[in-house]
Amino acid sequence: MKLFVPGRICLFGEHSDWAGGYRRINAELAMGRTLITGTNQGIHAEVRPHPGKLILTTTLNDGTQEGPHEIPMDLNSLLGEARKGGFFSYAAGVAYQILTHYQVQGLEIHNFKTDLPIKKGLSSSAAICVLVARAFNRIYDLKMTIRGEMEYAYLGEITTPSRCGRMDQGCAYGNRPVAMTYDGDRIDVTELKVPKALHYVIVDLHAGKDTREILSKLNRCYPFADDDLQRGVQEYLGPVNWRITGEAVEAVQEGDAERLGALMNEAQGEFDRRLGPACPSQLTAPALHRLLNYEPIRHLILGGKGVGSQGDGTAQLLVRNAEDQKEVIRIIETDLGMSGLELVIGARRQVRKAVIPAAGFGTGLFPASNAVKKELFPVIDRNGRAVPAILTVVEEAAGAGIEEIAILVHETDRHLFEDFFTKPPRIENFNRLPKPDQKRAEQILDLGRRITFLNQDRQEGFGHAVHCAKAWIDGEPFLLLLGDHLYVSETDIPCARQLLDAYEQTGYPVIGLGISHEETLRKGGAVAAVRSGDTDFYTITEFTEKPAPTYAQAHLRVDGLRSDEYLTIFGQYILPAEIMDILGSRIEAGIRDGGEFGLTSALDLLRKQAQVLGIVLRGRRYDIGTPEDYLNTLDAIRRPARP
Question: Are both 320 and 437 inside the same structural domain?
Fold first, then answer.
């Protein structure tokens, strides 16, 4: 399994994480607040289980390798190694914490690439800690959330001589902005939505700083202030930072780069005035201020400030666009001998495409399915019109805002679907239609212009069908719907739109879920999941297909549901392009589930590589795959859904 963990850059709120921790002792102090994001650079590794050792091979920035470092997977050995300090100690510290709480074997980690600057305030140590926690989680399927990985990474790092702040392991959330608040031992994490890309230049000042001295001097100002200097430090790390960082969070979510740049300048000015005197030998930072005041780049940057503990380690500059980003890097590298890295906090990729498999034979509806494709069976829509089932699915996607739709069909049936969506009724028939039906015919042709028909010439399962759309997906996230299901929302918002809203809010793959009773589990996929705080989202910890009741009772119970209720797959998914690679690998290796290439097992692999969320959709799903289901659907869909 390959993993990547980015570095972490603190955009606002440096030092306020540990300062907020002092509220355990002095409740009069303000809470801490930071705004952080992952970097484009980080630690790349390949991980695999090992029967009895923790093995780490490290690749440094210059490409040279260290290791392999090996240590037995027992508590005493791991703790002893962690207390020695050094890069391997971080891995040992996390392994010690994992082994304390879980029954696991060893781990072999090959860190084959590191493009994250070390000791520059970008949390390289936290990145390796998160990497190790994530590796244990996914190799041994420990079912941790991202927050859980972050907590074990923190516990592992403080097992070493490091005394990192609580925000460092925020790199677990990847290349997305995260707001964190600190109240004693309590941390709250909020992932932010970015409507517009923000372009930064991260600058290695090629100078030096002593982080330990900075932290030592600033910690003397806590938990109680004895003079004006200490009160100034507490004022900045408390209410001043709370206000500035809060406004920065708003600016990020509004995509307001101008306002964000002004806040960066304000934060640096307040930092210099209030914190600089507490540690002048480090925080005077001549290299940092030379950069921030360098006239040839002033017209190109919207704002700038230090990073991490501040001092002459790393700086961040906010610019308007990618062109200015490149020009600033050229100038500082040529004129100042500093190094620049591009960082883009991007608006996440929108879901523009939908895939609808419709190539199955329809065994459950034979012999009718030998004459008419089951996806073309008539149903009565909520307006009282007789329509083919596939039309309701296409309209579900289009009504949610999807721009392009692919329908997977067997080549011999392609003309049936194409004729319906691309050819109008014969003119003599069209003229006999009432005006509303003529308009409906024109609407269907409009929908047809969004549709691409793809061939699935072999019916080898749901997963195989999805994989046939790989080239058409072309690396984009996509909405997946079922061609023989009907979706009826219980609100004014279509079910697919509910799912898209969830994706836009989180950026993670999202699976539509329903709540089903035990006797219906045999009909499809089900999940085990953990509620994500007080949100509507679940972190999915297991996918399984058609579980037996005994298995469900033992493994799929979800807090908050009744003892006979389970979370089942609704039949709507928003998936990343990476699912295609997982499916392709299984198809190439001939790994089948019950004779077919399924999707459920591939989803279970996906959630081991990346967090997958679920949300219970406010709606109902109807199947037309058997005569009984078809009759029940016809009866149910003509009646308004009960709220």
Answer: no
Tokens, residue 376: 């073309």
Q: What are 103-153's pLDDT values in tens digits?
A: 999 999 999 888 776 555 556 788 899 999 999 998 898 888 788 898 999
Can you give the residue range of the structural domain that contains 102? Answer: 2-191
Q: How many CB atoms lie within 10 A of CB 460?
A: 17
* 245-270 residue pLDDT tens: 999 999 999 999 999 999 999 999 99
Q: d(Cα 435, Cα 442) in Å, to the nearest integer?
A: 11
The list of the chain residues with pLDDT below 50 reads 640-643
Q: What is the dihedral of CA 267, 271, 273, 275, to 10 degrees?
A: 160
Which ranges of 114-159 does DSSP label H, i.e. alpha helix?
124-139, 146-158
Cis peptide before 367 (omega within 30 of 0): yes
Contact 337, 206 (CB under 8 A): yes
Structure tokens at 362: 């329809």
User: 462 in a domain, yes or no?
Assistant: yes
Classified as helix, coil or strand, 197 is coil
Polymer length in residues for the chain: 643
DSSP 159: T
Predicted local distance difference test score (pLDDT) of residue 643: 39
Helix (H) or strand (E) holding 541: strand 537-545
Residues 288 and 420 in one domain: no
Q: Which of 345, 380, 399 is the last residue of a domain?
A: 345
* Residue 294 included in any domain: yes
- CA distance linking residue 339 with residue 269, whole number of Å: 24
CB neighbours of 136 closer than 8 A, spacing ≥ 6?
Answer: 94, 95, 98, 102, 104, 107, 142, 152
End-to-end Cα distance, the chain: 44
**Residue ranges in 457-558 assigned as alpha helix (H):** 462-467, 470-473, 495-506, 549-555
